[in-house]
Write a structure and sequence with these properties.
Blueprint: H1 2-25, H2 32-39, H3 45-49, H4 53-79, H5 83-100, H6 110-116, H7 121-144, H8 149-173, H9 177-197
Helix pairs in contact: 1-2, 1-4, 4-5, 4-7, 5-8, 5-9, 7-8, 8-9
Length: 199
């Protein structure tokens, strides 16, 4: 029983370390030796737990970090009273992560997707699943706030794309204020669409 717990702990530690490094450095710049060193895992453990090597490690890391961010997003959206509050809260979430990392960390999904999704079906499909879950969660809230049902998912995807672009621009400028600006524009457009739907 102790051996199983140790294996589980080692696997989780490697995944958490890899997720942090992939988010900060990207796919190509993150080496397996660095993951092992920083996780403190035994050298032979990586291919024991991840026989698919770096590709499998990255794919599973995306699920872990993407799910974590998704849970934070869901909490913000469920606590918001309207789309403006939700979008502003999401922008603040990403801005805080950027500022806290000195603008080194970006979106944990986009950082890897931009490099590796075109060449790896495993990574592409994990990225698609995470983005899909984020959009679906926001879509449900948008319908609750009065967006027409057929528009909810497209509007949610548009919002996520806009925030992802704002994260990239914030990194380039080393200034997270662009996230607030984009959030205000998004909230305004969503509010207009709700008013247009109401008689």
């Amino acid at each position: 029983m102790l051996s199983v717990a140790r294996h589980t702990s080692t696997r989780r530690r490697v995944l958490e370390t890899a997720a942090r490094l992939f988010q900060r450095q990207g796919y190509a710049a993150t080496g397996l030796n660095q993951v092992l060193t920083e996780s403190g895992a035994p050298k032979g453990s990586l291919y024991f737990h991840f026989p698919g090597g770096k590709e499998q490690l990255a794919a599973e890391s995306i699920t872990i970090s993407g799910t974590r961010v998704g849970e934070q997003m869901a909490a913000i959206v469920s606590a918001a009273e309207d789309p403006a509050g939700a979008i502003s809260g999401l922008a603040n979430l990403f801005a805080a992560d950027l500022g806290g990392s000195g603008f080194h960390s970006g979106c944990p999904v986009a950082t890897v997707a931009l490099e590796a999704a075109a060449d790896s079906e495993a990574i592409r499909s994990r990225c698609e699943s995470v983005y899909g879950a984020w959009a679906e969660g926001l879509s449900v809230a948008l319908e609750r706030w009065g967006v027409a049902p057929q528009d909810c998912l497209p509007v949610a995807e548009f919002a996520i794309c806009a925030l992802q672009g704002a994260i990239l621009l914030a990194k380039v400028r080393r200034d997270a204020r662009v996230l607030d600006s984009v959030a205000r524009q998004l909230a305004g457009q969503i509010s207009q669409s709700i008013r247009a739907e109401r008689p």
